[in-house]
Structure formats: C-alpha cells, structure tokens
Amino acid sequence: MTLTLPERLSRELAGLREQGLLISPRVLETANRARTRVDGRDVVNLASNNYLGFADHPEIKARAAEYLHTWGAGAGAVRTIAGTLTIHEDFERQLAEFKHTGSALVLGSGFTTNQGVLGTLLQPGDLVVSDELNHASIIDGLRLTKATKKIYRHSDPDDLDRVLAENPTDGLKMVVTDGVFSMDGDIAPLGRLIEVARKHGAVTYVDDAHGSGVLGEAGRGTVHHFGFETAEDVIQVGTLSKAWGVVGGYAAGHADLRQLLINRARPYLFSTAHPPAVVGALSAALELVQRDPSFMERLWDNTRFFKAELARLGFDTMGSQTPITPVLFGEPEAAFEASRRLLDEGVFAVGLGFPTVPRGQARIRNIVTAEHTRDDLEHALTAYERVGRALGVIGG
Ligand code: PMP
C-alpha cells in the first residue's frame, strides 16, 4: 500500500518527538530588539544575530521606506530577465568597495549563497577540504558539487596540511571555513589556514556570516581582521541578515568572480532579486557602520563585560572569542530547563542540543548586541546566577 501524506507527516513528527528533537520557534511580539516581548512578557533578548542593533534602526528603516516608495514593492523578475535595478548594481559596487575586493554579488540569502557559489566553482576533478564544524549551508552546498570532498579537524592547520598532501589533484583546490563559528563563537585561525592553503596552491573560501559587521575595521570581517581582504585567492561569502540587520547573502573576491556567478550560479539565475526596501536598508546599514564606529565599540564593550561576568559567576563560556557567548550545560535537558527558567526571569536565550551541537555539549547560546544596555546585561546576569545555582551548574 502506498504511503499516504498524513502517514508520512505523523510518522516523521512522532520520530522527532520520541528523540526529544521536536521544536517550535518562540514568537517575538515586537520588532527584533534588545528588549522584546515573548509570551506577553517583556524580556532581554539574547537570542538574535542582530549584532549592531540594525534590524530596527530608524535610519535604516527610513532608507527602506524611501526605496520602497521610489522603486516599488518588488523587483519584478529574476535578475537576468528584468529584475536588476540600478539600486542592485549600486549596492554591489558599494559592497565591493567596503570589502576591498575586485567584485561582489548579492544573492537571496547566506544559505543560497553557499549553494550557488560552491555549486558553481567546484567541478569534477577538483578537491574541496572543509572544516568539520562548518555551517549546514556549506555542507548542503558541497552536496551539490561533484568535486572530491574531504574534512579536516576543526581549525587545525596541521590536519588541513595532511589532508591536502594526501589528496593531490590537477583541478582546483579549495579550503572552506567559517570565519567565526556560530555555535562556539571561536574565530578560525585564518592566517595559518591561508598559509597552508597557499603551500598547496589552494584557494580559501571563508563564510563570514558572523564576522561581517563584527570583526575588522568598520566590520569588514574576519578576512580583513587577518589582513587578507585584497587577496585574489580568497573568496569571502556571508550574510546580510545578521550584523547588517536585513536579509541576503553575498560573495566577494576576484574581479571575475561576480561575472562567472551571474552566468552560472543557479540561485542567481532562477530566483527573483531582492525587493527595493531590502536594498535600501542594506545600503544605509553599510553607510552607518562606516560613519559611526560607536556601534562596534558598544558591541565589543558589551561582549567583554558579559563574558567576564559569566566567567566570574563560574559559568563555562567554551573559549568563545566573539559576541556569540555559549554557556555550557552538558545535557540537553539541563540546557532546555535553564532556557525555560531564564524566560521566567525575563531573559530570552535559546538552548541547543544534539544534533545542532555535539552530544554532551548542550548549551545556551547568548548573543550580545550593541543595543543591549548595561541594565539589560546585568538583568541577564542576575537571572543566570539564580538559574545556574538552582540547577547546580555553578557553586552553592
Ligand atoms: N553561514 C553561516 C555560518 C550562518 O551562521 C548562517 C546563518 N544561520 C548562514 C550561512 C545562512 O545565512 P542566512 O540566514 O542569510 O541564510
């Protein structure tokens, strides 16, 4: 008997429920701000990727409204057909200038950018070597290629060296890494990784979703932070949805990269361009971060303060070096229970367990933003102290 759709749905959901993996997202009842409302309660929001507080910034919203009125609600088509407006081209030039790269192209999201760029560049006979903790969108992007795929140990240049040495090829060689890893908040050792890649003639591909707007001068990103921004053997991709506060993905690098992607990347060729309001907001966001360094300063002041205070209370923040601040609980039940109790105390922070993070390393991931006040963070720390003691995660 053919399986019916209701059977498929109920079996899959029951399977997830049995494994304790069934999720339903919490709903925010305000715009995504440092303080938001969840379940009718005002809470400090430590769950967003809104690093600079741009998601609800008045200047950015004003530009979005201006572009909406001037250029319309939608772009009207796939870009190669009739969807490329002046504003799309202008923003990409602005982005390439910001990144100090020869070209830049914007795609629908960070997720589809990894699919589009990896799927376009890597061909049979090529070798791609990927960090074991790379983001799901990189893993999916690599599934689209027929290149030989190998994994190296997390942020381990010596292991990368070994893998590259053991897999010779005359095709293109590519090393793929996140710039900042989204679960632990650690920064990839890009200097050493690029050195090893170059020794083997490989290009380096950096997904800087969590480094753009956070690291490097004016938030130019992890590649800039390590001084490689103009290197032609480095490809930077990332998202426009986190620090930039809006939505979208980009690829920036060699002058010819954009032209090839325009001709080959399927998420570019077969998906409609961003609506004008998105482009307006993004263009204002890029201007704002370069004009006003106080956003990044507040982000890093808050990050240092929050991490130091959590450590003083006795929590394990897992060596994080960035505003992504995990707090280790070990077992998923403990992390989920802590997240529930924090919400009761007016703090919204999400618990993560296997398969999102390794077994035994369930945690709450906190993301500090420029928008949090000292009051917000002190409120969160008081809640953490109470919950941590109640659950026996920190001492007596
Ligand atoms: N890469 C990394 C490292 C990410 O953390 C994310 C966001 N979760 C993405 C890509 C996807 O970006 P977007 O949300 O714009 O699709």
From TrEMBL:
Query: Which Pfam family is one of this chain's hits?
Result: Aminotran_1_2
Which superkingdom?
Bacteria
Which positions make up the signal peptide? Answer: none
Q: Which PROSITE patterns match?
A: AA_TRANSFER_CLASS_2
Q: What class of enzyme is it?
A: transferase
Keywords (alphabetical) are: Acyltransferase, Pyridoxal phosphate, Transferase
The question of whether Transferase is a record keyword is answered with yes
Cofactor names from the entry are:
pyridoxal 5'-phosphate
- List, for all copies, the residue spans of the domain called Aminotransferase class I/classII large: 42-382
**InterPro entries, per database record:** Aminotrans_II_pyridoxalP_BS, Aminotransferase_I/II_large, AON_synthase_class-II, AONS_Archaea/Firmicutes, PyrdxlP-dep_Trfase, PyrdxlP-dep_Trfase_major, PyrdxlP-dep_Trfase_small
Q: Name one GO molecular function term.
A: acyltransferase activity
Q: How does it assemble?
A: Homodimer.
| Family statement drawn from the similarity comment of this UniProt entry | Belongs to the class-II pyridoxal-phosphate-dependent aminotransferase family.
| Name of this chain's protein | BioF/Kbl family PLP-dependent acyltransferase
Species assigned in the record: Deinococcus rhizophilus
